[in-house]
């Protein structure tokens, strides 16, 4: 077994991989006691890591975080970090101690990294605020940044409390229409956030339920949150539905937990409050 980042770099140089890559040298580790050097291959994990890790600790984030359509980071924040496409050659050039990735990381990639002595940890998509907090704590523990992880969780809880409705007025019935024409499903993080923000989500069944324009027109909600660009989701007929408000919802707020919850809670509260007289 190869031990240490220096040993992995020596193997890489011997294989000649470093000579054919265009990546620059990895950043120097943070000063003080040694910290785990991390590469992230998942945009949702990127968003958590950049909030809690020490300067220089995150060697690279997912290339998806530079794509406005897939990122949970703002462009300026994402630009501060190197990105990687997730190939084994790129990763071992960076010589991390740890790689964090989504649960669908190719087995061959994981096996190759682990054979080189690089620890790999995978994460699923949280389906609740509780699961998101557990994920953030796990990431923080891996990074040796437990205090920063707890601070992030406190910020999320504060944002959720601030987004909660005041008083016991009626809850507007809402439908969240996602990319591809799918409706937000039960038992998902976004469904919980809708409830916490004071919406009575109209039931649409399980994950992957397709919602048609005809169904919306036949049984309109009080608020239709549109997070997609399909033609039906922006059909002129929707504007003619009485007593139904429409609001845009950024698709980047749909899938990730962690700090994304803060932005999602603030957006949902703003949509809800916009309908008050």
Question: Which properties best describe this structure?
Answer:
277 residues; alpha/beta; Rossmann fold; 2 domains; five-stranded parallel β-sheet; 39% helix; 13% strand
Can you characterise this structure?
The protein is elongated, with a radius of gyration of 22 Å. Strands 3-2-1-4-5 form a 5-stranded parallel sheet, with helices on both faces. Strands 7-6-8-9 form a 4-stranded parallel sheet, with helices on one face. The longest helix is centred in the middle third of the chain and has 18 residues, at 146-163. The protein has helices spanning 4-15, 17-20, 43-52, 75-78, 88-94, 107-115, 129-143, 146-163, 189-196, 213-218, 260-274; strands spanning 38-40, 58-62, 83-84, 98-102, 119-123, 173-177, 200-201, 223-226, 245-248. It has 2 domains: 4-124, Nitrogenase molybdenum iron protein domain (Rossmann fold, 3-Layer(aba) Sandwich); 169-274, 3-Layer(aba) Sandwich (Rossmann fold). With 277 residues, the chain is an alpha/beta fold. The protein contains 11 helices and 9 strands.
């Amino acid at each position: 077994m190869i031990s240490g980042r220096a040993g992995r770099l020596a193997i890489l140089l011997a294989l000649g991989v470093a000579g054919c890559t265009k990546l620059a040298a990895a950043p120097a580790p943070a000063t003080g006691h040694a910290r785990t050097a991390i590469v992230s291959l998942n945009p949702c994990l990127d968003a958590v890591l950049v909030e809690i890790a020490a300067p220089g600790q995150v060697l690279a984030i997912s290339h998806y975080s530079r794509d406005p359509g897939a990122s949970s980071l703002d462009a300026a924040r994402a630009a501060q970090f190197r990105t990687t496409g997730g190939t084994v050659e790129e990763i071992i050039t960076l010589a991390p101690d740890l790689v964090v990735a989504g649960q669908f990381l190719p087995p061959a990639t994981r096996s190759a990294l682990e054979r080189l002595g690089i620890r790999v940890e995978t994460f699923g998509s949280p389906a609740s605020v509780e699961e998101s907090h557990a994920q953030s704590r796990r990431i923080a523990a891996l990074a040796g940044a437990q205090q920063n992880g707890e601070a992030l969780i406190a910020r999320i809880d504060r944002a959720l409390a601030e987004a909660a409705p005041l008083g016991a007025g009626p809850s507007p019935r809402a439908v969240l229409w996602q990319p591809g024409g799918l409706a937000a499903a039960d038992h998902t993080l976004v469904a919980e956030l809708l409830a916490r923000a004071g919406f009575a989500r109209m039931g649409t069944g399980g994950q992957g339920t397709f919602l048609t324009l005809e169904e919306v027109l036949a049984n309109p909600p009080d608020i239709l949150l549109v997070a997609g660009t399909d033609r039906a989701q922006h059909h002129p007929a929707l504007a003619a539905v009485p007593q139904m408000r429409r609001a845009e919802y950024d698709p980047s707020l749909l899938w990730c937990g962690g700090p994304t919850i803060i932005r999602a809670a603030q957006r949902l509260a703003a949509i809800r409050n916009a309908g008050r007289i």
